[in-house]
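Re: weekly structure request thread

Next one in the queue (399 aa):
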Amino acid sequence: MKCSSFYIKSTGLLLLSIGIFTACETTKVETNKVDVLIADIKEQYAPDKRVALFDVEAIKTDDGYLVKGASNLPEAVDAFREQLEEQAIEYTDSIEVLPSAALEGKTYGVIKLSAANLRGKPSHSSELVTQGTMGMPVKVYQKEENWYYVQTPDKYLAWVDNGGITLMDKADFEQWENSEKLIYTQTFGSSYAETDKNTQVVSDLVAGNVMELVAEQDDFYEVKYPDGRTAFVSKAEAEPYKSWKEALSFTKEALVTTSKKMMGVPYLWGGTSTKGVDCSGFTKTIYLMNGMIIPRDASQQVHEGVLVDDSKTFDKLIPGDLLFFGRQATDSTAEKVVHVGMWIGNNEFIHSAGRVHISSVDKNAENFDEYNYNRYLQSKRVLNEKGTGLLYLTEKDVF
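Done, posted below.
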C-alpha cells in the first residue's frame, strides 16, 4: 500500500509538474511570439537605432499583453498593430507615437550655440554622440526634465539640454526658416556687441554656424541668433547664406582646401565642429562646408557613394574620396568599419586621430601610417554622387 500510495502521489506530482511546465511553455511561446513581431518590425523599419526609434516592449497580463514604449515612425507602429490584430493577439496599446503631446506643439528646434553637445541619454555624464552647430534645425520628439530628444538633418537621434536649443512651434519655425541667413565660413572666431572687434564678445563661432542676417553696417553684418540675441560678425569671416550656396563648386579641390584649414584641430569623440572632431565628424564637417550633408558615423558613411578601391592599389582614388579602416570580414564575422579619412592626392589622406593630420599610404614616406594601412578596408566616392544618405544644400533648404 505504501508503494501504491507513493506511486499515486508521485504520479500526481508528475502530472502537476507537467501541467505547470506546459503552461509555462505556452506563456513562453506567446511571449516570444510578440517579441518576434517587435524584432521583425525593428529589423524592417528601424535597423539602425542611431537614426530611427522603435523602443517598444510587451508585458504579459491577464488580458493579453500591455505593449508600451515610443517610436518616431508612425508607419512602424501601424504595421506592428496590424500584425498583432492579424494574429489575434489581445493587447492594450500604450505606444506613444512621437513627437510627444507634452511638447504642446513646440516640435521644432534650432541649435543656438556655436556647438551644442548631443548625448546618448538625457544626462551630461552620458556619452557625447554628436554635435549640432548654430542654426541647425532639428525635429523635437520628447522632453525629459531639461533635456530634449531631437533628430538632426542627417537623421541622427540624440538628447540636447535646454541650453543648446531654441524650441519653436510651426509658425515660429517657418519665420526662422524663411528669414535671410548668414553663414560663418572661418574655422573659428567670435561675434561682437558692436561693430568693433575690441568690444564685448557675444559668443564664439565655428565654421558652418548659421544666423539670421539683419543688416550690414560698415565692415560687419548684424545678425540675430535663434534665441533672439543680436551681434555683429566681420564681413571677412562670413557670407550671406544665399550667395554662399550659389557659389558652391562641389569640386575635389574645394574639399582639400577645407580639410587643410582644420589641420591640428584636436580629436574629440562625438565632435562634429571645428572645436574638436572625431574621424567621421571631420569628414562630415568637410563636406558640410562644401554643401553636402553626409551620414554621421564612419559605419554609415561607408554605405554611401560608389566603391573605388578595396585592394590597396589606391591608383583610382581622387581627392575627396573617403578611406575606411577597421576589421576585415571573416567566415564568422562581418566587416567592421571604425575609422575614416579623406584622400588628398600624392598617396596621402587627411584624418582626425589624436588631431587632424596628414598620413601616407606610401611605405617609404616619412608620414607613412602603418597602423591604418594594415587595417585598410575600402574607399568610396561620395562627391557628386546620389544616395539616400547624401543631401545637397543646393537641392534642399535645410537652413
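The chain has a mean pLDDT of 93. Residues 252-392 form a domain with the endopeptidase fold (from Nostoc punctiforme) fold (CATH 3.90.1720.10).
Next request, please.
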